[in-house]
Amino acid sequence: MIKSLVMSILYIGLMVRKLLAYSTVILALAVGVVIYIGWRDGSQVSFLRPLAGMINIQSMAFEASVPDWVIYNVPDGLWMLAFSTFILILWNFSIEGGGLIWYGLSYVTGIIYEVGQEWEFFPGTFDVGDIVAMTIGCLLAGLLFIKKGNR
């Protein structure tokens, strides 16, 4: 009886963790898209332009003044937060086995893309601020979602 209760509580805890993680992925991507559409040219997310027009994001956004680092670096940090969190979801929030390798690869992928912009392998502009934002996003995913016994 007690073993069954403990197992139920652990299962509920895992489901809550997964719900929070999926919510983090969706919210991080949504906020990044709003920043791209509202304060940048939005070409990276041009398929969402009709939605932006319907909810009038651009006119609301241009009225609000935000620092450049929010416009240009935060979306990369949010992308990394979403990507790293999704990798952790796939590995059941564990860094044991291959989990640590894949979690690390999520970060390395972002850094390679950013450095590749400096060398003109990928479109975009290299920015050290993007690397800082991606580092924060990846670390935040780990701090929030890696199982405590695995740290």
Helix content: over 70%
Overall, the morphology is globular
Sketch the topology as an H/E string, one letter per element: HHHHHHH
Oligomer: single chain
Proportion of β residues?
A: under 5%
Pick out the low-confidence regions. none
Task: Please give the largest β-sheet.
Answer: none
What average pLDDT do the residues reach? 85
Tell me the Rg in angstroms. Answer: 18 Å
Structural class: mainly alpha
The N- and C-terminal alpha carbons lie at a distance of 31 Å
Number of helices: 7
What would you say this structure looks like, in words?
The chain has 7 helices and no strands. It is mainly α and 151 residues long.
Give a brief description.
This protein is mostly helical. 74% of the residues lie in helices and 0% in strands. The model has no long low-confidence stretch (mean pLDDT 85).
Question: What attributes characterize this protein structure?
Answer:
mainly alpha; 7 helices; globular
